[in-house]
Design a protein that fits this description.
Number of domains: 1
CATH class: Mainly Alpha
CATH topology: Multidrug-efflux Transporter Regulator, Chain: A, Domain 2
Strand order of the largest sheet: 1-3-2
Number of strands: 5
Strand content: 5-15%
CATH architecture: Orthogonal Bundle
Order of helices and strands: EHHEEHHEEH
Number of helices: 5
Largest sheet: 3 strands, antiparallel
Structural class: mainly alpha
Helix content: 40-55%
Radius of gyration: 15 Å
């Protein structure tokens, strides 16, 4: 008996610098306690901790969490397998693939007050954040 896992469609990531654990939970389809556990298991996840030990995730970390979720939930990797995949080369290559896919999409400059971009159109600020996340990953 084979089971097929459907890929879950996650909401677009807003163009902002920091996200709370609750926001990341909704954006990635993962409960907050799972995110806290993944921080212990994946050394690449290091959210900024501020007043009261509150976690704030950056855009590249949200992308990384989505990648971890995909490896674990959709591709069936174990924690160790996903960690090895990300440690070897997976995170950087996957981030570059996502960034290149975003670059190939039509780019439309949007004012902050404008309505959300239509499907298939990339927000320039989000593209900038994606590329900054890739640069940050490459520097590690």
């Amino acid at each position: 008996m084979t089971t097929t896992v459907e890929k879950v469609v996650l909401p677009p990531i807003p163009a902002k610098r920091y996200f709370t654990i609750g926001e990341v939970s909704e954006l990635c389809g993962v409960k907050p306690h799972v995110l806290r556990y993944w921080e212990q298991e994946f050394t690449q996840l290091r959210p900024v901790k501020r007043r009261g030990n509150r976690r704030y995730y950056q855009h590249h970390e949200v992308l990384l969490i989505r990648r971890i979720r995909e490896l674990l939930y959709e591709q069936g990797f174990t924690i160790n397998g996903a960690r090895n995949r990300l440690d070897s080369h997976g995170a950087v290559i996957d981030e570059l693939d996502e960034a290149s896919a975003a670059i190939e999409a039509p780019v439309v400059a949007a004012s902050p007050a404008s309505a959300p971009a239509a499907a298939g159109v990339v927000n320039v600020e989000q593209l900038r954040n994606d590329l900054l996340g890739v640069i940050d990953l490459l520097r590690r």
